[in-house]
Structures are given as C-alpha cells and as structure tokens.
Specification:
alpha+beta; Adenine-n6-DNA-methyltransferase TaqI, Chain A, domain 2
Length: 353
C-alpha cells in the first residue's frame, strides 16, 4: 500500500487560515483546482484522485454547510469557495496511490464476504431441507424432506414450561411512565435488525416492574423475534452474558426445548424461514405488517434428530466464522484508511516520493 514516512520532527510547517500545513503545500479554493467545476475536471497541477479523496475527507464539514427543509443541500457556490491544502503534484499522486490501494483491498474483502454469504444461503437451503447424506425422502405438507425427519409445529420446539413461547408487553402494560434511566432492559425489534443480537437498549424498567409481567421475561439462551414492522420475523439468540430483560410489544420469544432442538439450529432455521418468505403466510397487514403469536406457534417446520442438528450447526457455524473473520479484516482496513486520510491529506505524515 505504498511507503509512508513521518517527518513531523524533521519537516517545517506553516500556519494558514485553514490550520498548520507543510511549508511546500498551498492553500487553494476547490474551484481553483478545476477547469470545469460541475464535473470536477482537474487542472494540470492537480491530480483528480487526490481531489476525490480530499472532498471525501471533508464530507462531514460539507454536510454541516448544507441547508434545506426536505433535503439537505450544499450550493455550488459554497463548495467552490472551500479552501483546501494542496501538496506538490508528485505527492498528490503518491497519496492517492496509497488510498486507492487500501480501497482495492477493502473491495476485495467485500467481494469475499458477498460470495461467502451466497455460499451460506445455498448451504442453508440444502442442509435445512435435505439434511446431510440422505438417500430417501418423503413428501409432506411443507415439501420433500428426509425420511427420518419430522414435521412439527414451531411451538413443539419450545421448552415444556410456562411462558416459553410468548409475545411482549402491550402499551397498556408498559407505558412511558414506567421507563427509568437504568435497570432491566426492554428488548425491542431494533435489537435484531442485523439477524444478530445487538445491545441497543434505550428503555429500562425497574426490577419491581419486571416482577409483574413474568410472562414476558427474557433470559440468556432465549430466541427473540421481531413481531411488527418491516423487520418482522428477524430473530437472534440472547447471549449468555446478557442480563435478565423483558419483551416490548413488538417482539416475541422462544425458550428452546434442549431435549428436542439445538438452540443454534433453531436460530438458523428461523433465519432460513424468513429468507425463504415462509413467514409471509402468517403475516397480518394493517397499519404495518405483523406476525401473530398464534400463527408463529402453529407454523410447521422440518426437524431432524439432535445428532444431525448438531452436524448442520457445525457446518453453518464454520461458514459464519469465516464471514466474521473477513468482516473484521475489512473493518481493520477501513480504520487504517480513516487514519491514513487524516494523516496524509493534512500533511501530518509525509510520503516518500
């Protein structure tokens, strides 16, 4: 990604109206860098990719200058008048070369993530409907499945205890007057927008209030499901280290029956059912789409024996781990890029020409 060398202690800087910059850099208006501002056709001594990254770096500053009632808009006049630091042309090209190389690495990681996600979808469809190594299949009301699999209602996968498959508290039971600054988190549908459990708690209730609605209590290992809105059917497993919580009116939960189903298998199956639009048959549409608790309980699903469930989970988990590894690498590259843009586009760090 190019060789970058810090010259902070060796190189001289000067103070300008836009801050301290290297002595051999200039301060110019954006309009002075271009022959045609509308399409940003750069002049001979300005490298187009350097200007591209410089404007990208200034995005938040430009957004703050915007105005408008419906859409935030920045006038051409304002952008033309913005002043930016410009290094000599060879340094512009080297800076752009470094940032382009990082972008290319980020794009390669994104391509790997997308291809692995496609692989995962194909594996889910195969493993969750046809299993592993089966030769004999049978026709059922939900389609063809392996001979030794069962067709069960989703509620048959819930623990054999009270309140193992319930929805959340309605407005009459949980009002804004019950919310406090800290306490027991109230789980809402935005906890599971990404298909994974995200702790984005903004509403809490007291422990005393939690004792009243025992029915909607949530514990680690429970699977929570979005009930209402465009996110309906999205699900996530509450992590082991999460505290006791309570469901809001736009969520539901299943406490899995460990003797019947592996929690992670059920999580994968719920994700596949949403992906394959199986939840559409139990959605009621009024002001916004919503899954009914009764409909979800009665939804019929294919269920292999525990041993095969574990094997399926092992395969899909390995793919998930690969996706997470690539996403973490991509995030590291994005952080590197942010740091490089800050350092290189301001002259804080100089490149070796």
């Amino acid at each position: 990604m190019g060789r970058v060398e810090s010259l902070r202690t060796e190189y001289k800087y000067k103070n300008t109206e836009i801050g301290k910059i290297p002595v051999d850099w200039d301060v110019v208006k954006i309009e002075d860098t271009c022959q045609d501002f509308a399409s940003l056709i750069c002049k001979d001594k300005v490298y187009n990719w350097f200007i591209f990254y410089r404007i990208k770096y200034m995005r938040k500053e430009i957004e703050r200058l915007g105005s408008g009632s419906t859409f935030n808009e920045v006038s051409k006049k304002i952008i033309r008048g913005l002043k930016i630091p410009i290094p000599p042309l060879p340094e512009q090209k080297k800076i752009a070369e470094i940032l382009i190389s990082v972008d290319e690495a980020i794009n390669r990681k994104q391509e790997i993530i997308e291809k692995t996600n496609i692989l995962k979808k194909g594996l889910m469809q195969e493993l969750l409907t046809r299993g592993i190594g089966h030769k004999k299949f049978k026709k059922t009301e939900i389609g063809e499945i392996p001979m030794d699999w069962e067709v069960v209602k989703l509620e048959d996968c819930a623990a054999q205890q009270k309140y193992s498959f319930v929805d959340g508290l309605f407005g009459s039971n949980l009002k804004s007057i019950h919310y406090v600054d800290e306490g027991i988190p109230v789980i809402q549908s935005q906890f599971i927008i990404s298909g994974k459990f995200r702790d984005v708690a903004t509403f809490y209730i007291t422990a005393q209030k939690t004792r009243e609605p025992k029915r909607s209590r949530v514990l680690p290992g429970d699977i929570v499901i979005a009930k209402i809105g465009m996110n309906y059917g999205a699900s996530a497993t509450v992590p082991e280290n999460y505290p006791e919580a309570v469901l809001s009116g736009n969520t539901m939960k299943i406490t899995p029956n460990d003797n019947r189903v592996v929690t992670r298998f059920l999580q994968y199956l719920l994700h596949y059912l949403r992906m394959s639009k199986a939840f559409d048959q139990i959605v009621s549409t009024t002001a916004q789409p919503a899954i009914t608790l009764k409909g979800l309980k009665n939804l019929k699903i294919p269920l292999p024996v525990i041993k095969e469930q574990k094997k399926i989970v092992e395969i899909l988990t390995s793919v998930d781990e690969e996706i997470e590894k690539e996403m973490a690498h991509k995030e590291r590259l994005e952080n590197i890029k942010k740091g490089l843009m800050q350092a290189l586009l301001t002259g804080e760090i100089r490149v070796k020409i």
